[in-house]
Amino acid sequence: MNTKVWKVDNYVDKLESNPQIVDAARFLQDNEVVAMPTETVYGLAGNAESDAAVSKIYEAKGRPGDNPLIIHIAEKQQLEPFVLEVPEKAEALMDAFWPGPLTIIFKKKQGALSKTATAGLDTVAVRMPNHPVALALLKRCGLPIAAPSANSSGKPSPTTAKHVLDDLQGKIAGVLDGGATGVGVESTVIDCTERIPVILRPGGVTKEQLEAVVGEVWVDRALTDEHEKPKAPGMKYTHYAPNAPLYLVSGTRSFIQRLVDEKQQAGLRVGILTTEEHKEEFAADFVLACGKRADLETIAAALYDTLRRFNQMEVDIIYSEMFPTEGVGHAIMNRLQKAAGNKIITQ
Ligand code: TXA
Ligand code: MG
Questions:
Q1: 46 and which of 4, 21, 53, 74 could share a cystine (Cβ 3.0–4.6 Å)?
Q2: Which residue has the least CA distance to atom 30 on ligand 1?
Q3: C-alpha of residue 148 to centroid of ligand 2, in Å
Q4: Do 99 and 186 meet the contact criterion of CB atoms below 8 Å apart?
């Protein structure tokens, strides 16, 4: 399959009638799948009402069939045909954070949407992305759109159109290239089907921000206890892993340097994932700065690109610094722990 690339200028007026968007929307109406930028990561979009389109999403990504997709909408009224009820707290969260990096789980109406999209569950995950290209595409096609991150299953999520093409070229009908995404880690997933909302995946909207709107919010126990089964099926899979083994190191920089020296003496090529502040302090084969420690949002934005860059290097082992878990740091450390398969070295 020839994968079309549509370059889009995010900030032109009336993006909905831009020829690239019109073309991509037609593909969606024909049940083909196309990648689109969102404010978090690129998504692989397909008509959520069509089994054929949804199957193409799973196939292109190599995604396990028991992992449901997030449904993307451009207007709140689009919820009505497929959501059974909108609890008060969900309403408050939508008002506060949509469009934006928050996915809300609702009870699903029977018979609505492709069963494959929700992996046969009686709940459905929905979000309204805050990106001009995604919103214009959603409005133009007028469909509820299923869109997982547009990477091959298991790889780091894509934050540029190039990342999408590296994984999916030839497997999807097209990609709308709107440049690098902003947040860099996926949306927060919150289950609003119970009295107290539960965070199933940490992301762009923090627990503190959510609690400021709806009061008490719980966190799925699986996020802190690896023996618990996660409530978001996708959270049980290994993810984001670079090709070389990655270790998180809890210790001083001189401790990390000692680990590097030992491995180099054993003939291995060593990579370090650090930040702008510390990059000059390490001597290793590859030292990659992932944003600035003083601003965790820059680390989130650069994280997946940094993990992907290690795959272009002849590196045998990678050590990463740890980051504070407040705010978006919770999502950063969650993704890094997955990328490392929970391998942590403590000084
Ligand atoms: O930022 C994002 O959320 C991106 C962009 C493209 O919107 N999308 C994304 O989708 O990250 P994906 O498919 O990579 O991750 C969706 C997560 C998975 O962990 C999945 O298991 C969970 O949401 N999920 C989806 N529907 C669910 C449901 N009904 N109940 C529990 N978890 C659900
Ligand atoms: Mg994903």
A1: 53
A2: 232
A3: 6
A4: no
